[in-house]
Amino acid sequence: MALDLLSLLYAAVLGYLGGSVPFGLLLTRAAGLGDIRAIGSGNIGATNVLRTGNRWLAAATLILDAAKAALPVLLARYFWGDGAAMLAGIGAFLGHCFPVWLGFKGGKGVAVFIGALLALSWPVGLIFCAVWLLIAVTRKMSSLSSLTAGATAPIFAYVVVNEWLAAAAAVMAILLFFQHRTNIARLMAGTEPTIGSSKKA
Q1: Mean pLDDT score, 37-61
Q2: What DSSP designation does 113 have?
Q3: What is the DSSP-derived secondary structure letter of residue 136?
Q4: Model's pTM, two decimal places?
């Protein structure tokens, strides 16, 4: 039992450390665009990187943010099993949203959610992406797309895999909603900007 608990702790720490790497900040600085935290929403994720006007940099941030969750999940599964893999995914989400290196102020976690789900169960991850795209195309709101995909992820995880993945997805969905609390307020007030309406930094 002690070994199992230690393995779960290792998985959580591995996930957190992987998730806490601020690729958005590192890439924008390397590109000479300054501190991404001083631009737009101040987040370190791909959506805010896009506000610099550099789509390739935003795409790279999206891919790397997804990968920094997927890799710890795959490593944890290889060494310690499925339970540890789910914990690594949650840890990566926490690391991205609350990185200790940046005063616990990180991104909103959409790309990390995608990466973790794809590594835990690629069908569920693809469904998340499909839901996101459907809402994005029909409603033109990135935040609404993320919230809808996050809210439905535990349901699909339960149907496609099991209750354990559903529970892990639910934890990440709750964190996703917390990180989008200002967006939720704007959605309720009818002031949330649509995709493409935000001006470049």
Answers
A1: 87
A2: H
A3: H
A4: 0.92
